[in-house]
Design a protein that fits this description.
Elements: E1 22-24, H1 28-34, H2 42-56, E2 65-68, E3 82-83, E4 86-87, H3 90-104, E5 111-113, H4 114-124, H5 130-133, H6 144-153
Parallel strand pairs: 1-2
Antiparallel strand pairs: 2-5, 3-4
Helix pairs in contact: 1-6
């Protein structure tokens, strides 16, 4: 894990259509909720800042549409672990995605808003449930997502 950082040369490259929904792998809903300025690289972190802090957490962010996708997504675009449409840890990522699909009652191809995603997390995910849903995630040990889910439950 890298410390909080920024990259002035990084830009989020997601779509030629600015009105298009973001694309998220299923586990990225919880990653976005728990994001605290840390990432795999400067470019990855800068992209997450654009998507999460300047997008989803900004005024109107709850209305942002997000399409659930099976392969790499808008968060993955600058990830150093990305291998085309896959991840260098594809088997582990697929396990995470399947667990998140079940937990959040999502389907591939479905489009929901960030506000709806948060409602689903609140309804279906208890903070202690992350030990099961996120089993195998290298970020789980840092407690960022658990703290964010606890806060969401308020």
């Amino acid at each position: 894990m890298r410390p909080p950082n920024s990259s002035k040369n990084s830009t989020r490259i997601i779509s030629n259509n600015p009105g298009a929904p973001l694309q998220f792998r299923p586990h990225h809903f919880l990653c976005s909720l728990g994001f605290q300025g840390k990432g795999y690289s400067d470019d990855f972190t800068a992209n997450m800042v654009q998507i999460v802090e300047k997008g989803l957490r900004a005024p109107g962010g709850d209305d942002q549409q997000i399409e659930v996708v099976r392969n790499t997504d808008d968060i993955c675009s600058p990830c150093p672990k990305r291998r085309g449409l896959r991840c260098s840890n594809q088997d582990g990522i697929e396990k995470l995605d399947k667990a998140h699909l079940r937990a959040l009652k999502l389907d591939y191809g479905q489009v929901i808003t960030w506000g709806e995603a948060q409602k689903r997390i609140r309804k279906h995910v208890a903070p202690e449930g992350l030990q099961v849903i996120c089993a195998g995630c290298q970020w789980l040990q840092y407690g960022m997502c658990e703290a964010a889910v606890r806060e969401l439950h308020g």
